[in-house]
Each structure stands twice: as structure tokens, then as C-alpha cells.
Amino acid sequence: MSQKTIKSKQKVGVGFGKFAKGGTVKIASTENCVIYTRVSTKEQAEGNLSLGTQKKACEMYAIKNGYNILSCFGGTYESAASDERKEFKKLIEYCKKQKLSSLKIVVYSLDRFSRTGDNAIWLSRQLRDLGIQIVSVTQPIDTNNPAGVLQQNILFLFSQYDNDLRRQKTIAGMKEKLLQGVWPCGAPMGYDNITINGQKSIAINEKGRLLRKAFIWKANEGITMVEIIKRLENQGLKVSHQRMSEILENPFYCGMLSHSLLEGEMVEGKHEKLISKELFLKANQEKAKIPSGYKANMLNESLPLKLFIKCDNCKENLRGYIVKSKNLYYYKCDNGSTCSCNVSAKKLHSLFETIIDEVTLHEDYVDLYKLQLRKIYTTLNTEREEHLSQYKLKSKELEEKIERLEERFINEEIKADLYEKFSLKFRKEREEMDAYVNMTTFSTSNLEKYISRSADYLMELPSMWTSSDYKDKQKLQFSIFPKGFTIPRKLTNLEP
């Protein structure tokens, strides 16, 4: 090296330091790094050793390269399709706060860091400007030069491309399942995702049985959403107003599938129906009658036939009002501007009591009525009995598997760890099946009790109706005459 070159490397004269550009940087004696690990789903986090493998590989890489590990992030499931991840954001914020001249983010592979393609490229550049480099254990790339940066950016783009391909295949698979009548998403409220003999299915649970009542109340009684929510809460099920509205409008409950992937089409589902299509449509017709934000006085004890009787002329429901000067109640149709149907509440109630008396069960027909109810119950519960048989069969098969497993363990054919693993799995599945059996089983003694009680009620219909409050009168009316009644212009009789 020439004398001239040596002199050029020496410090310039004293007093010129203040003219030098660029701040003084904090130079670390050793390279510092942080480790980030992740998997995409909860099942991956709980069911395999990927997170542990990633962390171990990253730690070994750091030790091999002499890196000082400052902290570890991740260790859980986060989708790399978005950079709005809790652990990921903590990682980035931590790195930016260190303000070191050099810092490495060590990941097992670049797709563990991000699968957002162009956004990952932008973020990696922002980090490099801060002296922070992304280092992959399985894809060693030197990003201190343009060629290395280009190579890393290409890998980021390929990760996004791979993600987009997976998404495309997933969507195509979901659409195919929907067209076959199979729901590919999580079960809605009132249903459970179950597996029977290796086949995935969706079954009605206890919440579903309560939600069935909500549809019946809406369709037959026309009560408000507030009243439905209150009744459900009294029976142990809390549902928000918005959620309840979504449930009533979801055709899944009547066996129909509706999804954005079907592009406006409806498909008959293969899952167990909670209610009939007729009940679903009727409930939504009633729901549409009361606009949002409108307070209807539904519970006037003096007007129990509201929403139950329609005008024969305009086909609208009758509503009630009071003539305050006479303190008398009247019914009139909703379409008052074009129809003049108007009748005294006292007169209409008297006529309705006559009709109830005509349908009251006579003592001579009680045995015949009970026999018919038993036949109806048997017919309607055929499907339930089929499910019950499947649950019992599966429970028995699991019990046999547990017994065989215990026998093999006693005979030292399998080790303790395998025995514990599969014993726990089989017992958990059997408990699930037994729970479904208990939910589905309906004792014959209870059936007879309900049949006898319904016969007693039908023999006392007139007195029951007159002595009941508004809610019970509505229940009684709609249980006997589900479609209500039509009132002619000249009030001489009512027509169902």
C-alpha cells in the first residue's frame, strides 16, 4: 500500500469533526437477533411439533452464526395471509424500538414470516432501512446486496402465489360441497359438528331445540323480537337482538343452504332440519310486518285476537283500538285507508268462544284422540329414531375399541403412551355419542304424560281461553288454528 493511500486513511486535522455527516451508530460487539415462529391454524398448534421444531432450528442457527438471541415471538397460530397479527405486530414493534445498527429476525422459512407478497416486500425494505434483516434458516440469502434482495422478494411473491392457489382450491372445494348440499363451514348456533363412523355431520343440539321455539313464537304468535329474546333468556339461552334477527332470516334452519359462493342460488341441504320451510316463511312474513324501530303494543289483554284474525276483504291482520269516551275496544283491519272492516271486540270474542266450544274434545273421543297422537308421534320421529340408532351403534363400537385396547395393553402388545393416547381419544368420542343419545332419547312415560295432559286441555278449551292472559290466549289460538281466521264484512261467522 502506497504512502499516499496510508495518509488518506488517517484522520484529518482537529476541528473538522463537526462538519462530518451521519449520526454516530451503536455498533454491537456481536450480532443480535430475535426469533419468530408460527403455524396457520389452532389444530396445527395443538396437534403437531412444528412450532417446537421451528424454534429449535432457529436457535441452532443463531448459535452456529454467533447471534445473541434477544427475544422470541410467535409460538402460536397466526395466518400469514395478513400482517395484522398480534404476535407479528409485537415482533415488528420490538425490533423498531431496539435502534441497533444491525438486528436479525430469524425465521424457519420466509413463508413463516409473511405470505402477503408485495406487502412483505415493502415491509422487509422498511426494516432493512432500520438495519433489520430477515434471515431464513432453510433459505439462506444475503440481503446486503441487490441480488440477495431480489431473490428474497421473489420468494415472498411465490409464498403469496402458493397462498392464492390454496385459496382458489379451497373455494372450489367449498362450492362443490355446497352444490352437493353439504355445509362446509362451522355449524350455526343450534347445531354441532359431529363425526359418526368417520363421516362428518351436523346435528341439532339443546340450543337448537330452544331456537325452534323462537320460530314457532314468531310464526304463530307474531310476538316482537324483544319478547322472543326475553322468553329464550328465561329458558337459559341468551341471544342478542341482531343475532336473533340473523337466525330468523337464515334458511339453514329449514334445510336450505345460502352462501355467497352459490351466486344467488339456493340448494337443498343434507343436514337435519330444525323447522319446516312453511314455518320458516311464515315466521319471516310476521317479522316483516313490524318495521325496525316501530313499537307495537302487542300485549293488550283486551285484544287477544290481534294478528290472529284477518280481514276477508283486504287480507290484512286486524289491529285493536279503544273508544275512550265509551271505554270499549274494537278491532279494525290495518288497511284502514281502503277498507272499512270494524267490529266490536266483545262481539268478536263471543263468536270466537262459540267456535272454540265446537272444537272442544268430547269425552267419548278421548281414547281415539290419544291413539291418533301416538301414531303421529311415531311418524314424525322416524328420522330422530334413525339418528338415535346411529349414536347408539357408534357408542357400542367405541366401547368395544376401548376393551380391545385395554386387552392389548394388558398383554403388552402396545406401550403405555399409545394406550393413553388412544384410550383418551376413544373415551372422549364415546362420551360425545352418549351425550347425543341422552339428548335424542324421549321416554315413553313422558310421551303418555304429555298426551294425557293435551287431552285434558282440549276438554276444557272455552274456560281455558277466557281465563288465560294475552300470551296464553295467543298460544292456544295458534296451536288450534295455526293459520288463524278470516272475518267477513258482515260478521256472522269466522272462517279458518
List the helices and strands and how they pair.
Blueprint: H1 3-9, E1 32-39, H2 42-47, H3 50-64, E2 68-77, H4 86-98, E3 103-107, H5 110-113, H6 118-129, E4 132-136, H7 146-179, E5 191-196, E6 199-204, H8 206-221, H9 225-234, H10 241-248, E7 256-257, E8 267-268, H11 277-289, E9 309-311, E10 318-323, E11 328-333, E12 342-344, H12 345-359, H13 366-380, H14 382-410, H15 416-440, H16 444-458, H17 461-467, H18 470-480, E13 485-487
Parallel strand pairs: 1-2, 1-3, 3-4, 9-13
Antiparallel strand pairs: 5-6, 7-8, 10-11, 11-12
Helix pairs in contact: 8-9, 8-11, 12-17, 13-16, 14-15
Keywords: Coiled coil
GO molecular function: DNA binding; DNA strand exchange activity
InterPro entries: DNA_bind_recomb_sf, DNA_bind_recombinase_dom, Resolv_N, Resolvase-like_N_sf, SSR_resolvase
